Amino acid sequence: MAAPGRSLHGMRGMAAVPSYVVMQPTTLCNLDCAYCYLPFRAADRRMPVAVAEAVAASVNPWAASARFSVVWHGGEPLAAGREQLAALMAPFGPEVEHHVQTNATLIDDAWCEFFVAHRMRVSVSVDGPRERNGDRVTRSGRPAYDRIVRGVAALRRHDLPFSALAVVNDPAPGRAAELYDYCLDLGCEVLGVNIEETEGVNTRTNAHDPAVVTGFWAELVAAWRRQPRIHLREVEWSLRYAAAVLDGTADDLLPRRLDPIPTIAYDGSVVVLSPELAGFTDSRYGDFSSGNVLATPLHAILADAAERTAWVGEFLTGVEACRSSCPYFGFCGGGHAANRYFELGRFDGTETEHCRNSKIRLLEGVLEHARNHQSPGA
Ligand code: SF4
């Protein structure tokens, strides 16, 4: 199944126009989750409206010609408050879709009315039932689970559709089915699953027994197939890839050029490809930023980000190394910059624990499920 990756020739370099931008309205988070990668989550550094105005000046023309999203990410974006968030959203035109990734603990009726008024799509972070949320604690170390559930209840009271994003730190047998069944009850429309990553200030290991991780994904597919009521992000990617391999169109699946996915930090600095790199510095790579929107328009920064940012060039070399060495390249497209940096210390390596857990074993898990459930005589 994975072998076509070696012969793929599509997707070279990085595009100048993204399909979405990530905005950091504040560095602050009201929680202190054990696996969080954010370095400044205890500090309330807020994005000035001038930064949003500068970003909108580039984004609005893009949104007029193609679907375009702004993803409000943090810190905890709701910790910025409704007034501040509304002021930051105001410069964006009506074509721009707004999304927010939130820990849900601050969601109440007033926030729900805000989401409706601003046509904002909501994704909540929740790791499954109460006992799987032990890493999710307040600044005083208290479990955040009840507050997360209260926030989700408010969304449901207002009939607001929402997505869920779950971090799994122990993909043991039984956990995938438990998570899926939990999300069916939770009422989310879409579920994304992240095996915990070693990145940013989170240095916990993400190395697992390969068979256990493959089994986790296979179990998740089986749970989904029993009741396919939720869009399961990772499984849908895998099935789309499998179908494309079978009908010979796998080469069309990856974008022609990498989406730069610019993250705009609270101070206007722009980090491409990996939001997790924002706020870090390195003696070789500096602060990872490709410029600041208060000095240079976003479209101008992205026009030559690969040339003006040394680590991006190194990352693109790593992507080419993946293309020539990894049979999973056609599915994966070369992985994430932050995982390479935080696991390997540089950007031009290839395999990471993250890509083993979340790309290679994901695809293997889907295939394992297919093998175990093929009809007799097939
Ligand atoms: S990041 Fe990993 S799975 Fe993806 S292409 Fe590179 S080596 Fe393969």
From TrEMBL:
Keywords for the protein's UniProt record, in alphabetical order: Iron, Iron-sulfur, Metal-binding, S-adenosyl-L-methionine
Superkingdom field: Bacteria
Iron-sulfur recorded as keyword: yes
SUPFAM superfamilies named among the record's database cross-references: Radical SAM enzymes (SSF102114)
InterPro entries named among the record's database cross-references: Aldolase_TIM, rSAM, rSAM_sf, Sulphatase_maturase_rSAM
Every Radical SAM core domain range: 15-240
Pfam family of the protein (one): Radical_SAM
PANTHER family in UniProt: ANAEROBIC SULFATASE-MATURATING ENZYME HOMOLOG ASLB-RELATED, RADICAL SAM DOMAIN PROTEIN
Protein's UniProt name: Radical SAM protein
